[in-house]
């Protein structure tokens, strides 16, 4: 991911736009009636840490590396370990280059007739020497950890909408995996209502209180998905104010795995820690290790993911 555009507005926990607050139902404003809070409370920092540590322990997760299939297998096993059954777990192949097949891992039912919210995170990594070493702890073991943890909670919550999660290969190769899966969603006519991208969630900038970014589509290739994406972004900002201590920055979507979904006409939003914006020296280097991950920040990002998806699914705003 390169640097994003400048944010269009900034919100703090106590400074959410009055008009947006007015859209909340009275029940949500009373904590005891908040249907989202019990789900948010289930987020486990220990689970997040275990996933990040396991993924970063691979010497490299560079998609062209011959050992990358072991990464795919690990992620599929992680989904099985949280209760995703064999009928709800699939390897979706694509050709990265002639003769080189890689797979996205898809959990959940993408054809759920009630409609689907898709969580996505890329499982591959990059560095200055990716065929030798690319631990990718923040970029993007953190996103995968948040996705698996959010799927564990949301899939068990009996929500009135389907929840699916996709671990993408080859984000660092022009989103090749996401492009293949987005095209499959369109070809199959799967009822995707929103794509939520999780890419780099556990770094803080050099200044205290560095903002966390909520990204929502503002144009790009398809105009017809803008309104839904912007509405989802507003809900995410409200959930950040309600369920995290983040200061929020807002921007368009940019240069990650939501872009192929936007190009297919699906509404897309994303969450991002802003590390590259602040000049993170570990970005795309062999120094992107577990020691540099802020697990408190990752936990809050996962809480935000759970809260946003649950609020949309339950129409709690």
From TrEMBL:
Q: One Pfam family for this entry, by name?
A: Peptidase_M28
Q: Which GO terms describe its biological process?
A: proteolysis
Q: Residues in domain Peptidase M28?
A: 110-307
Molecular function (GO) terms listed? metalloexopeptidase activity
Coiled-coil stretches are: none
**Name of the protein this chain belongs to:** M28 family peptidase
Which species expresses this protein natively?
Roseicyclus persicicus
